[in-house]
Design brief:
Number of helices: 1
Shape: rod-shaped
Strand content: under 5%
Order of helices and strands: H
Number of strands: 0
Mean pLDDT: 95
Low-confidence stretches: none
């Protein structure tokens, strides 16, 4: 009887071990799939950040150009006002 009990216990142990291995494989594969998905999302995020950085660079350049244009326009307006004031004073 002891031999039958030992065989039964060993069979149960083997079956439990197989079930554990199957569950472990399933969880490991699911984890790997999630990690791959996260990696793809991170790649997309990096690409989006690079695009945003490029856009910010363009925006800074445009702001600098508008700043120069604004200063030139102010200088021209100052010259025109000065010219008009000089003519007004001479009248």
């Amino acid at each position: 009887m002891e031999t039958d009990d030992i065989k039964t216990l060993l069979t149960e142990l083997r079956d439990s071990h197989r079930a554990f291995e199957a569950e472990y494989r399933r969880v490991a594969n699911e984890s790997l799939a999630m990690q791959r998905e996260v990696l793809e999302l991170q790649k997309q995020a990096v690409a989006n950040q690079n695009k945003a950085i490029e856009e910010q660079g363009r925006s800074v350049k445009m702001q600098a150009q508008f700043g120069r244009l604004y200063r030139v326009a102010l200088a021209v307006i100052a010259v025109v006002i000065t010219f008009l004031l000089v003519r007004l004073v001479r009248l």
